């Protein structure tokens, strides 16, 4: 059986199509190839040296086995699955669920084979209260999957403390133990301690893999498997893409080409990277990509003693919806964006447009056409309009949207990120700038003790308030 | 009774807070005030001359009366409301619904006073098929609100033709007549003709108001009223804001100040405008704003015979979610963004964080704190971290999220858009660049006849295919 594939199409960034000012000429492309080719063996070597353990997730069957084991223990009688996590502990779960389960999954019981699924990656009291009002009477049929490497993330810790109290109150001493699955560090940290202490079922976040690269670990696989996703196929798709993105021949390596083009445009004044799926199913893949790109590539760099701030800004759009919202700007606004469309060849299901009413002959040309043909035409029409205004366009082409192609896509963009990081000569695996806000939250929430050697959390909180408390003179 | 208010807070764009390089100095602010002050009487005069009819929507009680009349006719027995529309015929409806109804509205019947509501602003066959599978047996309890000024928008027309056929098949000759409400031009156009021919209930899209400015007309009010939103309060909120944004004193006019600051930053290298609500309810207001900003302000301008491409790029983010996704980039990436937070003082409901488990003393400082305090702290912490890196921040402060404040917010940003348009010296009310893609779609879908005087739609389709058909040489 030939598997469905995911491929990168890059003709519409070429100078042949959009002209020399904004397009990439043959010479430039050769130069990009020469420079990026040097990085391929480096990146492959790093991977073999164990420095990018996310690359090996498709080849660790014990991860999927552990996930399946916990799924087998809790799936019976589970009608509701709630993921409590944020950032890399949420966006992959949401993206996989939207991609691989029907639009009406949570509402139409005939369209689901697993529990309803909710992901809370925020601490909005009105939102969470609305959910708790509903779930309160169904707690014994609800599994809460709490995901946090450390367990000290303020959002997830607070959610966990609310849920724990509720479960203990409503279901008694075993309520917490029975209804919660912890996905966390294998050995240490606050959530691991809580899991051990309460004898929670638990899964492991692999060492050395940053949150945004964990979707193919237990972080993403547990909720996927609970909701009927074929996780073996997801991992096999990633492995199939691995073969391509490891190729030393630049011309045959889609991650290297994708990275080279993205890096080229960033350096040539197109600092915004718009990802625009023409598929509702792939909509939340754009949010997953936003984190991957922003946290990995938004970095301050020391360039010969001078601070340089780099990083393309990822922007999420959706076709056709945003044709009627953003395309005016995309065509007539500044030419500062690289567009990446996600296009699907076969939607699995289709719908034929009905006949035009007699009084509306002008709609006759739509009658009998399939909706997938309309969506495909809209994508081509938008791309055509952008090309007319010399805007560069990439397309990631999915034969179908299924677990195998979603696995390919995830792996393609993860490895692309590694390549772009190498081209920028930055470390794409850390996120140093996130810390200050986390510590500032701790301070404002009343944490005590030393923040730094010469500043307590209390003093720090005062400084933050002085900067952020409202000054009525500037309020209108 | 003092109403809840929406106010703009702008201290954290000042040079006092973020320094002279990225902040606005007192002198610069005075200069912005001088230049923008000149535009206030102009904009007020345009409005009095009837050139910006969106400004008068809060004062046309017959609109709300007509909406109420149709609601009264169809609400009984309506369990499902489906909006078919795109762009300005969808984003306002979605934004108002998310803002003013509970998170679990569509799932928990105890949390809703109206029908379930769905908005389809796309033509994804898998998504629409999933919905039709579910709704197919409930068509007699479903109202379809089709919204299109012309009725020739390919997406909405196709949806309508599918739904029409389905209703006729399943419910007989009256099915279409009974279950569809058309919101369209008062007199002419394809959808008006269809409505007249099939004797559909109908509402009017006001003359001279572009789609993105119609949320306070029947376009947005019908779905809102169906789902229990107090539309009088929504309109009263807009009118309350109108008083403020008409003030000739720059220092007291929040739209003028907001516009001046946005325009200043665009001209000073911050071409990205990030809107970041710290409220799930306000999340989709960011999508509504994205269209308003992008279509109104993304314009090619002729500057002394030279083409200039202007327009800030609106970017949607969500607090706290995107702290764990975008803040790394927002702090360490290029300083090319202006941030606008939406902050809520009183969430109506709140949740207290439970006690920390005994084995996790380190979480003790969170115990007993309200979730709203955490969310507020996260916002301040993030703002503080951005200010440390000299990133300019505005805040729109909501006392509460209710119909009155949502009306204020909508009107504030609509009028801000008019001011920014005037500062750029562009027409913010047209969208010329959207046409080409629409025509290209028609061509690819098989429309016949003349596209231009020397090109048929068939010839045009061939040209588009030549530009967009896949060339296997560039596919990897």
* Most extensive protein-chain contact, per-chain counts: A-B, 166 and 166 residues
Low-confidence stretches of chain A: none
Instruction: Identify the CATH architecture of the largest domain in chain A.
Output: 3-Layer(aba) Sandwich
Count of individual beta strands of chain A: 14
**Spatial sequence of strands, sheet with the most strands of chain A:** 1-12-11-7-10
Helix content of chain A: 40-55%
Q: What do these coordinates show?
A:
Two copies of one chain form a homodimer. Chain A is of the alpha/beta class and 476 residues long. Chain A has three domains: 6-49 and 234-424, Glucose-6-phosphate isomerase like protein, domain 1 (Rossmann fold, 3-Layer(aba) Sandwich), CATH 3.40.50.10490; 61-205, Glucose-6-phosphate isomerase like protein, domain 1 (Rossmann fold, 3-Layer(aba) Sandwich), CATH 3.40.50.10490; 432-474, no CATH class. Helices cover 45% and strands 16% of the residues of chain A. Chain A has 17 helices and 14 strands. Chain A has a five-stranded mixed beta sheet with strand order 1-12-11-7-10, sandwiched between helices. A five-stranded parallel beta sheet of chain A has the order 3-2-4-5-6, sandwiched between helices. In chain A, helix 4 links the parallel strand 2 (80-84) and strand 3 (116-120). In chain A, helix 3 (61-74) crosses helix 9. The longest helix of chain A has 23 residues, at 26-48. The mean pLDDT of chain A is 97. At the A-B interface, strand 1, helix 5, helix 6, helix 8 and helix 12 of A face strand 1, helix 5, helix 6, helix 8 and helix 12 of B.
């Amino acid at each position: 059986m030939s598997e469905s594939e995911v491929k990168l199409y890059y003709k519409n960034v070429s100078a042949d199509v959009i002209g020399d000012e904004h397009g990439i000429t043959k010479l430039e492309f050769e130069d990009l190839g020469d420079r990026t080719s040097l990085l391929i063996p480096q990146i492959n070597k790093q991977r073999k040296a164990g420095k990018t353990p996310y690359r090996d997730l498709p080849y660790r069957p014990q991860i999927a086995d552990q996930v399946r084991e916990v799924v087998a223990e809790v799936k019976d009688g589970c009608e509701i699955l709630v993921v409590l996590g944020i950032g890399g502990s949420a966006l992959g779960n949401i993206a996989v669920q939207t991609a691989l389960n029907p639009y009406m999954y949570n509402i139409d019981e005939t369209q689901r084979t697993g529990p309803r699924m909710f992901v809370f990656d925020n601490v909005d009291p009105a939102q969470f209260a609305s959910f708790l009002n509903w779930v309160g009477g169904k707690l014994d049929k609800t599994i809460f999957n709490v995901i946090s490497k450390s367990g000290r993330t303020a959002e997830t810790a607070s959610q966990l403390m609310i849920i724990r109290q509720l479960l203990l109150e409503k279901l008694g001493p075993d309520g917490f133990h029975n209804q919660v699955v912890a996905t966390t560090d294998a050995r240490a940290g606050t959530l691991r301690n809580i899991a051990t202490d309460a004898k929670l079922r638990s899964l492991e976040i692999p060492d050395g893999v940053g949150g945004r690269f964990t979707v193919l670990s237990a972080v993403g696989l547990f909720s996927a498997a609970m909701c009927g996703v074929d996780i073996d196929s997801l991992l096999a798709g990633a492995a199939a893409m691995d073969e391509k993105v490891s190729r030393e021949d630049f011309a045959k390596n889609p991650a290297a080409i994708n990275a080279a083009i993205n890096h080229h445009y960033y350096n040539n004044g197109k600092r915004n990277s718009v990802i625009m799926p023409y598929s509702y199913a792939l909509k939340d893949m754009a949010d997953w990509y936003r984190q991957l790109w922003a946290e990995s590539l938004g970095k301050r760099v020391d360039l010969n003693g001078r601070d340089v701030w780099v990083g393309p800004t990822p922007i999420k759009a959706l076709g056709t919806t945003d044709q009627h919202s953003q395309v005016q700007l995309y065509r007539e606004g500044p030419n500062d964006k690289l567009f990446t469309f996600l296009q699907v060849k076969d939607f699995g299901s289709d719908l034929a447009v009905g006949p035009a009413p007699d009084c509306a002959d002008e709609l006759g040309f739509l009658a009998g056409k399939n909706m997938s043909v309309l969506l495909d035409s809209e994508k081509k029409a938008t791309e055509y309009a952008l090309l007319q205004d010399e805007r560069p366009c990439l397309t990631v082409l999915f034969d179908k949207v299924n677990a195998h192609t979603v696995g390919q896509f995830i792996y393609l963009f993860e490895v692309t990120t590694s390549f772009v990081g190498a081209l920028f000569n930055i470390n794409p695996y850390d996120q140093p700038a996130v810390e200050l806000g986390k510590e500032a939250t701790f301070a404002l929430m009343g944490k005590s003790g030393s923040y730094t050697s010469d500043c307590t959390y209390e003093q720090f909180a005062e400084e933050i308030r002085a900067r952020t408390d409202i000054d009525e003179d500037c309020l209108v």
